[in-house]
Amino acid sequence: MLKQPLLAAGLVALLALPAAAQNTNSGTDKFAQLETLLPTPNTYRTASGAPGNQYWQQRADYNIRVKLDDAKQSISGDEDITYTNLSPDVLTYLWVQLDQNVLDKNSITATTEVGQIQQRMPFQALEYLQKSEFDGGFKIAEVKMKGGKALPHVINHTMMRIDLPTPLRPKQAVTFSIKWSYNINDQTKINQRSGYEYFPEDKNYLYEIAQFYPRMAVYSDNQGWQHKQFLGNGEFALPFGDYRVSITAPADHVVGATGTLQNASEVLSSAQRQRLEQAKNSNKPVLIVSPLEAERAEQNRAKGTKTWTYAAKNVRDFAWASSRKFIWDAMGVKQNGVPVMCMSYYPKEGNPLWGKYSTEVIAHTIKTYSKFTIPYAYPVAISVHGPVGGMEYPMLSFNGGRPEKDGTYSADRKYGMISVIIHEVGHNFFPMIVNSDERQWTWMDEGLNTFVQYLTEQEWERNYPSRRGEPANIVAYMQSDKSLQTPIMTNSESVLQFGNNAYGKPATGLNILRETIMGRELFDYAFKEYATRWAYKHPTPADFFRTMEDASGVDLDWFWRGWFYTVDKTDLAIDGVKWYTVDSKNPEIENARKRELINKAPQSISQQRNLQDIKKTLVDDKPELKDFYNQYDPLATTEADKQRYQQMVKGMTPEQQQRLNSGLHFYEVSLKNKGGLTMPVIVQMTYEDGKQEIMNIPAEIWRKNNAEVTKVFITEKPVVSFVLDPFLQTADTDLSNNAWPQKAAPSRFELFEYQQRAQPNPMQQQSALQQKEQKPVNGTSSTGGTN
């Protein structure tokens, strides 16, 4: 709403008026504290968000022997698990996760999955619907105590309860063994977190293997056993421990895995061992297995096997990859003096992208995440290219991003590949080190990781095209139908719009905290403190919320409540502006100003037409009808006016006289919170001379009225416009109401002609153009020579 300038009755009167009552909206107080929502602090988890002096967590150590059957695409193995009870509780049974049972024919996931039949469906969709024909669940052959005595056990879908012969008391440990097998899924048909890819051109398989062994569930102080079924979205909650894993694969396979290789002399050639040693101090990737060596391996089939043994300390999981197609390169970096081997495994189909970028991206990720969290302390970090688009495990991740067969690729493919490697390698920090419960809260690992991914992308390349992190990128989601959204604080299996909710929205929220609400210095310190406190431990949402406030001294309960516990959206609006200037009471000044306003005032349409139609009025024709008031000028300053003004000024203090003649401008800006989400108010004022000023008003401006407030701005120069959130900091979903005077928010629509065939990427187009320019024309080459 536009308002013409109004005159104040006087400076003293204006400043003496109390602020209008702006009370909290009853029942919708967005500044209520979170105590009623967060768990009560105790000796395990303190009110500051730090682990308490009696904090404890369990431990599980593994000795695993596993064999890959390349002919049948199956796994068989056995393991010894040593479980140490560090809790104050006596345990009579243990819970083990059987996540591979998500591919059991009778899994809960398969029976509860919903879908629809379309009039036209691709073969892949039909294969997906029929995936229940594939039996990929665990076949548990035996569960027994160390020494051979069978253990009673009950399988409940993706969980197995093992009943102990004697209670496991605090500080005691028990060792038992499990023998199992299962069929590996074709990842191109049954999309899971691990599987194989078949390459028909050379008849080879590439395996990315995870969740391949029965794993201990978490038993914690805040929820007891975490044995919620694995339905597909909620990933994994796992205790820390040491692993020793022996992987038997075809003799011509290259096997990469979590941890460090223990028997390099048995599985690598002397040349490969020398290259690996060289890579430790190289500033660029060194080929351990070259493309030529990989292509030679593709053409043969070894009859025997090799066993690769890997060991890893203080990790929560283990994964591996195996193929005769693997090219392998490596490069060493150091973090706080600790050497880290950054390594990539990929088939030739991944080049040139993978040879050029993968290991460099790993090194960059390790360095950048270490800066914003804690130093990376594991000895290796690995990226594997295969059928899994993106999945994370300690020290090893599976990543997509494959160029076209001719070696070209689009910008989207390039940056998509770099981003997924940053993201999955970054998961080493969240949740592999800062070990949150993914089965319960996806956002605690995906959201926090996506946020640091954004920071890492921006340090990779100026103006990197990050998909998530910038507030403007989450606007479309927050504009969407609220019935299709869930609060961030929703269990992983119940989240709607999974990518936006669990990845994009929490990452954006953290960026808003860092840039707009807390500032970089306070945020970075608190975020690093959270990572330091909870490294190699099991944090909860409350631990994160409390630590961020404790280490920064900023009350953020209103932010957690709005951004994490609701589906409200940001929509702050300028509802109107009133402009006041001080009446100086100086008749010479004020009368001149009033005269100027009268002269500038527009004439009505009647006044304009009367000037044309009424040639002479009655008093013009009969001057005798005129009197004093026909010559009187009410805006003419008299001596009496001047004397009254001088008398008034004498009764004022010097400070009052200064204020009276300051020439300041007062703007009363009416603000409304239409979206419901509380946010800071960022106001850009543009002055008459073109200069601009930014005012950052904390969100607490809404604390007494969550819906509407007025704010007075005092300026020395006239303001010609006010704009809210000029730099798109708060994910405001409606920019059309952010300006005074109001202005239309730009938008666009696109016209296109439907194309059935995929268009070549720009690299392909350029290559085709270059080939065309080099093609001989009329028997003459492009260089001017003749054939």
Automatic annotation (TrEMBL):
Which residue ranges are recorded for the region named Disordered? 755-787
Do you know which Pfam families this protein is assigned to?
A: Peptidase_M1 (PF01433)
Query: Know the name of this protein?
Result: M1 family metallopeptidase
Q: Which InterPro entries match?
A: Peptidase_M1_aminopeptidases (IPR050344), Peptidase_M1_dom (IPR014782), Peptidase_M4/M1_CTD_sf (IPR027268)
Q: Which residues form the signal peptide?
A: 1-21
Q: Does the keyword RNA-binding apply?
A: no
Which CDD domains does UniProt cross-reference here? M1_APN_like
Composition-biased stretches, type Polar residues, lie in 777-787
What residue spans carry the Low complexity bias annotation?
755-771
Single GO MF annotation? aminopeptidase activity
Peptidase M1 membrane alanine aminopeptidase domain spans which residues?
359-563
Its EC number(s): 3.4.11.-
> What keywords would UniProt list here?
Aminopeptidase, Hydrolase, Protease, Signal
Q: Which PANTHER family match?
A: PROTEASE M1 ZINC METALLOPROTEASE, PUROMYCIN-SENSITIVE AMINOPEPTIDASE-RELATED
